[in-house]
Amino acid sequence: MQDPNEPIKPGSVIGIIGGGQLGRMTAVAAAELGYRVHVFTPEENSPTAQVCEHATVAAYDDQDAIEAFGQNVDVVTFEFENVPAETVRHLSQLAPVRPSWECLAVSQDRVKEKTFCNDLGIETAPWKEVTNPMELSVAMAEIGTPAVLKTTRMGYDGKGQVRIHADTDPNQAWEQLGGGPAILEGFINFELEISVITARRPNGTMASFDVVENRHKDGVLDITIAPADIPQDLADRACAIGQKMADALDLVGLLAVELFVTHDDKGNAHLLVNEMAPRPHNSGHWTQDGCKTSQFEQFVRAVTGVALGTPQRHCDTVMKNLLDADALLWEQQLSDPDNKLHLYGKSEPRTGRKMGHINRLYTKGSQPKC
Ligand SMILES: Nc1ncnc2c1ncn2[C@@H]1O[C@H](COP(=O)(O)OP(=O)(O)O)[C@@H](O)[C@H]1O
Ligand SMILES: [Mg+2]
Questions:
Q1: Burial of 43: CB neighbours in 10 Å, binned 0-12, 13-18, 19+
Q2: What is the pLDDT, as a whole number, of residue 325?
Q3: Nearest C-alpha to atom 22 of ligand 1 is from which residue?
Q4: Distance separating alpha carbons of residues 11 and 28, to the nearest angstrom
Q5: Measured from the CA of 188, which atom of ligand 1 is nearest?
Q6: What is the pLDDT of residue 307?
Q7: Would you state the pLDDT for residue 4?
Q8: In the chain, N or C: fewer CB atoms in 10 Å?
């Protein structure tokens, strides 16, 4: 097996688990550096498979297909984190898996994730694990309302969440969630949502992109504003949290951390970690056009163990997600020469489906106050 300190050379094969847009943009960045990509996904004609050399289309628990995949790649990474444990354990015997299984396990499970943060002294919303309606009722009294009930695993884009109010019936809320395990989390009246993406190499070297502001619509990211309009010391604190978490996980690859910004009665700013993702993140898409190195190139550099690029921002950028029918307006979007349009090659627009995004560039400091 590969010495972890030896860089994986251009020409080698990067195996990506998951065939969505994050894998697609990673595969393009990998190709630019001379790497070859083999994707493993259950989806036919996936966004990633459209742009890479090999695709294995098989279920994540197809042991024969996993075995063959592991034998044909030089390193394995993920474009989403909900991969069955057994698949990853098996793969790690065949090729280096970056980030490691331990990193995935923490990010797959909200209880592990929040415990990990709190153990490091990092603040989160108040939370409690709940496994049935009775425990939910106790947690509602303890945490208070409003609150958010979230499934422990598999939630994304606001799915797997139910808002809880003082008059909510715990049995009904439990049913609406579709069962547990879950956590009840205090609702945070935040001023701003921000995120930070950190790259970390096998030797521990790190580099972070600028801290950005994220605005959501119906639980789905709508726009990212880069950089976030916050004081530098607060941005530095967010960055330090991301790096502390990446180090504690001994993570190789990218770690995206989402945070809420609040102020207490004395006017002191607080940063609460909402969640993390050990992979490229939607709030990092702006780096494709606003930074010298994109998050996708940085991801490839980190998992192959070569030198990181500079994450420096050369342009202020606003990224807008294109959901379902938004992507049909491509002609109009392209007719504005300041728009950088990125489409993911998905054929059917479905409600809430991420079809592409637009990066709009502004000279430093001239970005409109959105
Ligand atoms: N405790 C909370 N208080 C206030 N808003 C929240 C809370 N938890 C989630 N949200 C809102 O919902 C969005 C999605 O929730 P999140 O926990 O990030 O789940 P996911 O992104 O996996 O769907 C957040 O970005 C935030 O806007
Ligand atoms: Mg989130």
A1: middle
A2: 87
A3: 156
A4: 14
A5: 3
A6: 97
A7: 72
A8: N
Distance of CA 247 to CAs 38, 110, 199, 202, 243, Å? 28, 19, 10, 11, 6
Structural domains for the chain: 13-97 (3.40.50.20), 126-186 (3.30.1490.20), 192-362 (3.30.470.20)
DSSP 231-296: -HHHHHHHHHHHHHHHHHTT--EEEEEEEEEEE-TT--EEEEEEEEESS--GGGTTHHHHBSS-HH
Name residue 197's beta-bridge partners.
256
Residues lower than pLDDT 70 in the chain: 1-2, 364-370
Position 370 scores a pLDDT of: 45
C-alpha 133/C-alpha 271 separation (Å) is 30
- How many angstroms does the Cα of residue 214 sit away from the middle of ligand 2? 10
Q: State in Å: Cα 258 to ligand 2 middle.
A: 7
Q: 128 by DSSP, 3-state: which?
A: strand
Best mutation site among 128, 258, 274, 275 for ligand 1 pocket (most ligand atoms within 8 Å of CB): 274
Residue 214 CA: which ligand is closest? Answer: 1
Task: Give the residue whose CA is nearest to atom 1 of ligand 1.
Answer: 187
pLDDT for the residue numbered 349: 72
For residues 267 and 272, give the distance between their C-alpha atoms in angstroms, rounded to a whole number.
15
Contact 13, 311 (CB under 8 A): no
Distances, alpha carbon 108 to alpha carbons 85, 111, 278, in Å: 10, 9, 10
Ligand nearest to the CA of 224: 1
CB 146 within 8 A of CB 156: no
Asked whether 185 lines ligand 1 (CB < 6 A), one says yes
pTM: 0.95
Which ligand gives the minimal distance to the CA of 81? 1
